[in-house]
Amino acid sequence: MSPKEPLLATLKETGLGLIKRDVWHWLEQLPQQDTCGRQSQFSVSVETAAACKKLLTAQGRGRFFLRLALNRKILGNVVQHLIHTPKLLEWYDPVISVLGNEEFLEPFLSLLLVISEMEFSLNTENSSFLDESWLLPVCEVYETVPCRELGMVLRYLGSRVFVLELLEGSQAKVDKFVLPGDIIDEINGVSLRNASNGQAGIVLQRLKGKPLSFRLIRWRCGDGTVYRPMVKLLKALQQENPKFQLQCDPKPTPWTDTYCLQDGRILYILKYLGKVEVGMYGGKEVLEQGIPKVLEQRLPPKEVLLDVKETQLICTEHSSKKLMFRYHYPEISCVGRLLRNYQAVFAFCVADCPETPETSCFTCIVLQASSTCESDQIISRIASGFKHTESFV
After folding, report:
1. pLDDT, tens digit, for every residue of 327-366?
2. Cα(347)–Cα(379) distance, integer angstroms
3. What does the radius of gyration of the chain's CA atoms come to, in whole angstroms?
4. What is the CA angle 303-246-147, rounded to 5?
5. Per-residue buried b or exposed e for 59-97, using 16+ beta carbons within 10 Å of the residue's own CB
6. What element of type H or E holds 244?
7. Which residue among 118, 184, 269, 274 has its CA within the 20 to 30 Å range from the CA of 153?
8. Quick one: pLDDT at residue 393?
9. Is the model more confident about 358 or about 54?
10. Could you give the C-alpha distances from 161 to 64, 164, 190, 200, 214, in angstroms and in order?
C-alpha cells in the first residue's frame, strides 16, 4: 500500500482484471448505496464531478472530486459514509487497506476530520490534465476586446487545442500574452477539452463582436520547466511543424540552437569560456576584472548545457554529458555581466570553501549566451535562486 494514497492504492481488481477500479467508481455509487442519510453536499459534489466536461476518465473525476471535497470540507464525512456502506467497503483489500484495519482506521479518520477543518482554495477550473496527472499546469486568463482578427493559428492534437503560431500585426501578437505552445482550455466559459477540428472557430464566430476571455494552459511551469504531461504533445507538434517554436515571453525559444529539452526541463546551450581566481573578495565588482581576464586567455570555448534548477546550477558538456560543475546557490557570491562590451557574456563567482568565508578564495566562471536577452534571463533566474535557497544559507 502506498502511504500517500490509502483511498486509491488498495482497491481490489474486478473478477477477470478487465476493469481497473478507481475511487470514482465507489464515489458515484455511494449516494444510492449509503443508508445513513445527510449526503446533500456530498451528492452535489459527485454531480459536479460527473458533469465536468474537462474530464474523460474515472481517474480524472476521482481526483477532481477529492479537490472539491477538500475545498468544501467534506472529505472526512465522505469516508465515514463509505465505512457505513459494507457493499462498497468490500472493494478494499482487508489485508493491506487502512479502511479494513481497525487499528489504523480510527487515526486515519481523525486525520481526515482535522483536514476537513482546514481552509483549502484549490482552483477547480484548472482540471483539464487531472486525467493524466495530479501535477497541474499554470493556468491563466487572457481577456481581449472585440477585434476583427485575433491572429492565432491553432492545431488540434490529443483532444486539445494548441496555439501553433501568432500572426504578425494581430491582436494576440500585440497583446503579448498568448504564447505558441499554450493550450486554449476555454473560451468565455466554453470548454474545448476533447474539441473536434474547427470547434474553437465555431465558438469564436458565435461570440463575434463580444469581449473574449480565454482560459490558457501554459506549456511552461512556474520554475521554467516544460509541464511534463505536455512534453510528448509538444514534441509531436514540432515534428509536424518544423518551424514551430516555444516562446518564453516575448522572444522565441527554439527547440534547438540555444535551448535543449532534457527530461522535461529546458537547458540552455551555452559556451563555457573559462575561469580565473579573483582573490578573497567575491563581490559583483570583481566581475569587471574577472570577465576580461578570462577573455584574454583566448581558450577554445566549450559547448555546454546549463540547467538552472531550483536549488543549484548543473553544467555538463553538450556532446559527452560530462559534468563540468555543480554549485548550490549558497556557494555563489554574485552573478552579472558587463554593461558595455560582450553583453551576451555573463559570469558568477563561487567560493572554494563557503563554510569558512573569511579564508575562502573566489573563482570567476565565465559563460556566453546566444544573446543579451538570454544572458539577462539566466542572470535573473540565478538571482531568484538566491531567494529560494535562503533557508539553506
Report:
1. 998 889 899 998 777 778 999 999 877 656 566 789 999 9
2. 9
3. 27
4. 150
5. bbbbbbbbbbbbbbbbbbbbbebbeebeebbebbeeeeb
6. none
7. 269
8. 30
9. 54
10. 21, 9, 13, 8, 12
338 dihedral zone (left: phi>0; alpha: psi -120 to 50; beta): beta
List, as own/partner pairs, every contact residues 293-301 make where C-beta atoms lie below 8 angstroms and the sequence separation is at least 24, other chains included: 293/364, 294/347, 294/364, 294/366, 295/342, 295/345, 295/366, 299/273, 299/274, 301/271, 301/272, 301/273, 301/368
Contact (CB, 8 A) for 380 and 389: no
Contact between residue 337 and residue 370 where contact means Cβ atoms under 8 Å apart:
no
CA distance 268 to 146: 39
Burial (CB count within 10 angstroms: exposed 0-12, middle 13-18, buried 19+), residue 378: buried
337 contacts 346 by C-beta, under 8 angstroms:
yes
Residue with cell 481552509: 119
Note the pLDDT tens digit of each residue in 292-337: 999 999 999 999 999 988 778 999 999 898 999 999 988 898 999 9
